[in-house]
Amino acid sequence: MLFFTQCFGAVLDLIHLRFQHYKAKRVFSAAGQLVCVVNPTHSLKYAPTRCAAAQASTEQGILPACHHHEAVHDPQLVPCTCPLFSCPWEGHLEVVVSHLRQTHRINILQGAEIVFLATDMHLPAPTDWIIMHSCLGHQFLLVLRKQEKYEGHPQFFATMMLIGTPTQANNFTYRLELNRNQRRLKWEATPRSILECVDSVISDGDCLVLNTSLAQLFSDNGSLAIGIAITTSKVHSSEAEM
Amino acid sequence: MLFFTQCFGAVLDLIHLRFQHYKAKRVFSAAGQLVCVVNPTHSLKYAPTRCAAAQASTEQGILPACHHHEAVHDPQLVPCTCPLFSCPWEGHLEVVVSHLRQTHRINILQGAEIVFLATDMHLPAPTDWIIMHSCLGHQFLLVLRKQEKYEGHPQFFATMMLIGTPTQANNFTYRLELNRNQRRLKWEATPRSILECVDSVISDGDCLVLNTSLAQLFSDNGSLAIGIAITTSKVHSSEAEM
Fold first, then answer.
1. Domain that holds residue B99
2. B241 to chain A: nearest residue by CA?
3. Which residues pair with A38 in a beta bridge?
4. Could you tell me the CATH number of the domain that includes residue A221?
5. d(CA B116, CA A238)
6. Average pLDDT score over residue span B128-149
7. N or C: chain A end with fewer CB closer than 10 Å?
8. How large is the ipTM?
9. Which residues of B touch A30 (CB under 8 A)?
10. How far is B96 from chain A (nearest CA, A)?
């Protein structure tokens, strides 16, 4: 009996996922993009100070020894960049992707334009939705975070980080787009390097920020579809400050 | 002596305005748009409840009698829609624009695309930056408001209202664009009718919302340049919810 109940539950889950996938495809139908359903993960890491020293991250791929175990002796080693866990792993930048996939089970998607469909937006903060995105010969980490910067007022923060150095990151532009209910919100920026800390990018507010009310306007049945596009950056024609 | 000091002050002000104008033009140089320098006004109206009843605004251009004087007897009359003052004026929708110009000294600008350059972003909340925008045969009211929804955490809210009925408003789409420091933020939506209340649109958060940190990233020397474009709305091709 239990077996049949579980089977029925699994079938219902599959139908639900299929339905969400279909809905996200409708919203971003024009480009025929790949839709990735991303389930939330309750963040187990409560250590914003973990990265306090990391803001001075350098160009050589060295991250200061700001993590919780012994200091890094090999300057080529970087600590685990998974935003979810305080993980003692460290390794070369080239193997960060395989560590994130294998140890933290973060999915990786291919394609220049994808749709990130974050489910269960109602879950309490802190919650993260994370995928990796492989594009233009590089890998990017997309993080959507629900966090209470002001107690009792959760906000959503979305950013894209290059799994590479800041110099490499400067070669790209990423775009996040929300589109629903006759409203459209677009954020375009240069991705930050994963050597800078996700936590500090979010605490600086230098990313797409959504209040709960706006997140609800853009959500459909508790899921938020974010269109993602990455391009190699060119000097913005209407940008004078560069 | 006082005369010379004042003359010198006026010349300095002119140079400063000219410089700001030039800077805004640089940021949005591509389209060669009209730049309008908008000075802040400290909001004298502290009555969010003024519009509580107005949310049920109807299609016939009638606003419920939610203002502070005697009830409206002529259903064609609307109260003053100036977001700055609790003004006892009321009149027909067609004369709202001239009332706002003459009594509240709100500037009106012509052109499909303009740049709204809000100065002195550092001023404490509540502060409003307001202009009217004449375009496609209609007049729009652009409101940028600095407000503390959460005490001690001012945010910026920008929205565009049509000085017309909700049915007329549905025919347009407005776009607000910020572009600086290799970051770009675009908000696109259908304008709300001025018969709905600016205060309620902002308290609902159904507008462009900027945290202080993002506002600083997009500001240049205390001024925020917002590119504005209005178009007649067409069904968004990638929008399924309409």
1. 31-39+78-232
2. A181
3. A118
4. 2.60.210.10
5. 16
6. 92
7. N
8. 0.75
9. 237-238
10. 27
Number of structural domains chain A divides into = 1
pLDDT score of A95: 86
**How confident is residue B165, by pLDDT bands cut at 50, 70 and 90?**
very high
Query: In the 8-state DSSP scheme, what is residue A237?
Result: T
B214: in domain: yes
Nearest to residue B27, comparing CAs of B188, B183, B229?
B183
Sequence-separated (6 or more) residues with CB below 8 Å from residue A87: A79, A80, A103, A104
Mean pLDDT, contiguous 10-residue spans, chain A (242 residues): 60 55 50 71 54 40 39 63 73 86 86 88 91 92 91 91 94 96 96 89 91 92 94 60 38
Q: 3-class SS at A6?
A: helix
The encoded tokens of residue A208 equal 């797409």
Q: B23-63: per-residue pLDDT in tens?
A: 554 445 444 567 778 878 776 564 443 443 344 333 444 44
Across chain B, where does the E strand assignment appear? 34-38, 41-42, 77-79, 90-92, 108-110, 113-118, 127-135, 138-150, 153-162, 172-180, 183-189, 192-193, 208-211, 219-220, 223-232
A90 vs A80: CA distance, rounded Å: 6
CA distance B172 to B234: 8
Residue type, A163: I
> pLDDT: is B190 or B6 the higher one?
B190
Task: Answer for the pair B150, B209: CB distance below 8 angstroms, yes or no.
Answer: no
What's the CA gap between B125 and A8, in Å, rounded?
A: 55
Please give the Cα distance from A190 to A159 (Å, whole number).
10
Average pLDDT over residues B133-140: 92
Q: Is the pTM of this model over 0.80?
A: no
* pLDDT of res. B103: 83
- Give the whole-angstrom CA distance, residue B191 versus residue A12: 40
Higher pLDDT, B186 or A25: B186
Is there a domain that residue B105 lies in?
A: yes
Tokens of A144: 């959507």
Q: Residue B199: which of B145, B120, B124, B122 has the closest Cα?
A: B145
Query: Can you tell me whether residue B28 is helix, strand or coil?
Result: coil
- Compute the nearest-CA separation of B172 from chain A (Å): 11
The answer to whether residues A142 and A130 touch, using CB atoms and an 8 Å cutoff, is yes
Tell whether B6 is covered by a domain.
Answer: no
A242 compared with B199, residue with greater pLDDT: B199
pLDDT above 70 (res B235) = no
Does residue A6 fall inside a structural domain? Answer: no
Pick the residue from chain A with its C-alpha nearest to B242. A181
Chain B residues within 8 Å of chain A (Cβ atoms)? 23, 26-31, 150, 153, 173, 179-190, 204-206, 209, 211-214, 217, 220, 233, 236-242
